[in-house]
Amino acid sequence: xxxxxxxxxxxxxxxxxxxxxxxxxxxxxxxxxxxxxxxxxxxxxxxxxxxxxxxxxxxxxxxxxxxxxxxxxxxxxxxxxxxxxxxxxxxxxxxxxxxxxxxxxxxxxxxxxxxxxxxxxxxxxxxxxxxxxxxxxxxxxxxxxxxxxxxxxxxxxxxxxxxxxxxxxxxxxxxxxxxxxxxxxxxxxxxxxxxxxxxxxxxxxxxxxxxxxxxxxxxxxxxxxxxxxxxxxxxxxxxxxxxxxxxxxxxxxxxxxxxxxxxxxxxxxxxxxxxxxxxxxxxxxxxxxxxxxxxxxxxxxxxxxxxxxxxxxxxxxxxxxxxxxxxxxxxxxxxxxxxxxxxxxxxxxxxxxxxxxxxxxxxxxxxxxxxxxxxxxxxxxxxxxxxxxxxxxxxxxxxxxxxxxxxxxxxxxxxxxxxxxxxx
Length: 424
Ligand code: SF4
What we know:
Layout: H1 2-7, H2 13-22, H3 26-35, E1 38-41, E2 51-54, E3 60-65, H4 74-84, E4 90-93, H5 100-110, E5 115-117, H6 119-129, H7 139-152, E6 156-159, H8 165-173, H9 183-195, H10 200-203, H11 205-215, E7 218-221, H12 236-254, E8 259-263, H13 272-282, E9 288-291, H14 303-316, E10 321-323, H15 336-354, H16 359-373, H17 377-383, H18 387-396, H19 413-423
Parallel strand pairs: 3-4, 3-10, 4-5, 5-6, 6-7, 7-8, 8-9, 9-10
Antiparallel strand pairs: 1-2
Helix pairs in contact: 2-3, 4-5, 4-15, 6-7, 7-11, 14-15, 16-17
The structure holds iron/sulfur cluster.
């Protein structure tokens, strides 16, 4: 178990691997895990390379895939996985289609990346399939789904344990602009309102910790009350839930269970720094996993760009893990190409921050600059974040003189200056 080992000062194989991959001392990894500021994503039942997330490590990106009830094509989800497996750091399977467990098992089988899920989706789907309402799910079934996912090897799970009955009841009097936009969060909120009971994941958090510990899985404490629109950013519900989550983070650490904190959502650009600092201060540096964030509400069709802007700013101020967003966000389940576009956009955001911290990462940009200055097209294409796309664009509009590009042709600024400097 990573946290227990770290607490005893024992260096594990996973710590060594992460230290080597990140190029940071293993003592830093061990202390970070012990303090709850770094998590190792690797279930004991999943044969993958571990991924470290948190303090002074590279910013990582997650890609969500998964079927829905309205678009239930498991093969397409596998194709989505294949197209991002060399771009993403982690994959979340959010399947809610008919055969959700089969999709999850297949992704767990083929994935070389840590896999995350939201087990309550499966509990809810099973309720609907048996002709019952989601609010009728019994508390045990929620924990049964969690246990099943972790036993199968899921490395991290989103659990909406911080949304409590009092927070939801308060919403009755003072409605938010958008309400609750978290699917799992809504299931729990509706369940609490219908049954008049406390959130089982909050009430029985110790039981949840026991299950997670059995598999050394990481809890991703979901932000059920994240703002779903700029007007709701940093409102009493978001902050109230974050306070609850900060207490749960401490309890997880006391029990030797790794946890990270999920964050917003829709956040005006000038509030991103505050969101990150607030999370870091009140959780004593727990890894922060932000969903975008989206910095405007009107970018439908282009929300991958929107999220990459927010993600870069959030990571610059200390967020550790960025969940991608696709161009189809708010509109439809993304197709394979949209998943790819979203992953590339968020990869650029993470890279933009990583090059400010890791010289090795910056060197690729340095090499690219040199290649540009030398008009070395083969090298420029190879160093691109998406070489295939870069090659396609160049090939489609190939210049008369292969030394330049069709943007300026013979008026190529780099070529003209180079020719005259060489003559001088
Ligand atoms: S042709 Fe223009 S855009 Fe293309 S490499 Fe030369 S200066 Fe840059």
